[in-house]
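Sample entry (123 residues):
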Amino acid sequence: MDEAGTHSQVERTALDGNAAMSKVKPPTEINSSIKASLIVDYVFWVMVAVVLLRFAFKLIGANAENAFVTLMYNVTAPIVDIFKGIVGDVVSGTMVIEFSSLISIIILWLIYKAVLRLITIMK
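Predicted structure, serialized as tokens:
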């Protein structure tokens, strides 16, 4: 009888814990602002990765006639070309330090932070 009394008390404690847990949303129900933040994160990091690839290819003097290198240059041209001429590039043989790529990464980061801030404000 004593055992049954403590057992039912343990069950009551577990039920009370389950009642408290029922107020917590399951992890599959993600808030729309969190989804938007995740999408912004993904797009930002993909854009930064592609611009960094461009910067690395220019830095090591990659063959511009290679199909993949040409693809990277063409994809990033709209992002990077806006900032060409702000600071001159440093050229040594086939190697180029392209400052417009670095400036575009900084500007992308500022836009990224502003968009994330807007998403948190609009919650």
